Predict the 3D structure of the following.
Amino acid sequence: MATETKIQQFVHKLEEGGWVRRFKVLVLLSAIAFVNYLVFFKEGSGFKGLANEKAIEQAQIAREVSRGNGFTTKVIRPAAIRQFERAKGSFPLEKTPDTYHAPLHPWINGMAFKGMDVANEGLKSLAKNADYFSRYTYEVEMTSKLVVYAYDRIIALVQMAFFLGAIAVNYFTARRLFDDRLAVLSACMLLLCQKFWDFALSGLPQMLLLLLFSVAIYTLVRAIEARAAGGRTLPWLIGTAALFGLLALTHALTIWIFAGLLFFCIFYFRPRGRDAAIMAGVFLLFYGPWMIRNYQVCGDPVGLGWYSGLFQVRGTESQVMRSMDLPLTGVTPLYFRTKIQGQVVEQFGRIYDFLGKGLLAPIFFIALLHLFKRQETSHLRWGVLSMFVFAVLGMAVFGMPDSTVLQANDLYVLFIPIMTFYGMAFVLVLWSRLEINIHLVRLGFIGLLYVISALPFLNQFLVLIGPPTGRVQWPPYVPPYIAILGQWTREHEIIASDMPWGVAWYADRKSLWLPMSIRDFMALNDYNQLKGQVVGLYLTPVTGSLPFIPAIVKGEYKDWSPFIQRTVNTRDFPLKAVTPLPIDGECIYYSDRDRWTNRED
């Protein structure tokens, strides 16, 4: 029996009484209520602010965008100083252009900040006459009296909107590939995938990527349908290429996925190669202006981001970005071959985790062996496979550091929905062949699929409704005491730190990422690069919690070991005044003078 017919027969009885339509509304309302509770009302175990360093760094760029400063940053990377000096002769200390991150995600968040600030001012005006509105206002600046920064919540809300939008788009894609019944079952399962919720609350751009990629898959499906019907495919493929241009402007690593799509299109659409060439041209129309901008500001069309590809070749990414001198001599293809080989093995060893710990997404690879009746459904999976293979290659080239739970380079999350659809279809076909016609058994089987796939989500939900687990992302972030650094310094002054993104975001001060050596630090501060404006050194558990001998005594922070261990004699160091900071003195601040005697903390 045909695949779609079996699926329809299998779930037809589950839909008797019109429960599906009511269930859609119920799920949507539940999701909105859960998001509202999680972000705004749950204290302690709920939303505690941003935790990923790349997300925080993009957030502070977004704030500069909202202030009208353009795509600029307050995070100063020694590698960026080197890049600017080689290309332009000097480092632009005022309104420093960012050349590491892609622009679209910070720009969207910046516009959200601006819009929310306008609404906030309106509510404050209303609150003068009616105190009722004051509960909905917020402080634009992070202070030592706040626990969770309002802008952190705004970012989370924007990402949640992207997530729910992506679920809606994927529902329509699944309905075209299979039917409405399977689309509903799969979309509900996606809502229970904890990895999506984690990324949505992280502030990373993955949910924007998910929405754009989901729309791109939908337009690709329409192009494949047009080919099967003998219609025009080019308009849909142009739309797909434009969406991939936006994807690249959100995260440049998605260019690898686009390469996989072009590989598929070259062989699938006729005349062979024509549509792929046009798609490449459309993609360049979107991404090309950003490359021109990078070339104009730093002399390199790909900016600083490509240096992250030296991860594992020249040490950790922090070593690459904190270095003032990074010669490429001796870097051979053999190094990259070894790195790629190791990364692929490591990533495939964690494929279940990367695919959201869901039961159905990995079954996509088995479903490749199944012959689906509809040509469009059957053909699309090979395009998905091509994009997936190229995505894995890209992630292997640039690396997936395992220092955090969520990876900024994670592209696996984009493939979870489409793979879940194929996995669900294949599993239901196999179940239907058992010809078990007991209604409760069928319901139990569907329920078991949901329970197994939703275990991480259920576990997190139990944490949320349990006792408080802390109000901030500690360690290493304690926003109120990072914000106090902004009270001790002036706007033009610079604070060096092992956590410059946190200082730039919560203290709203320029922050130099701790150079590899004290000599580099002294040279940067004493000469023209930073104009002697480094007035503080803020050290946190980012370095203090590292392995003592491998990382601090003999590793990348060996030059700063006395500072991290609190054993340094500051007599010959320009930052002579020292004070410990909460929590439990695990953070320490070295300053040019006592700036905290009358502090209130």
About this structure: Confidence is low (pLDDT under 50) at residues 13-17.
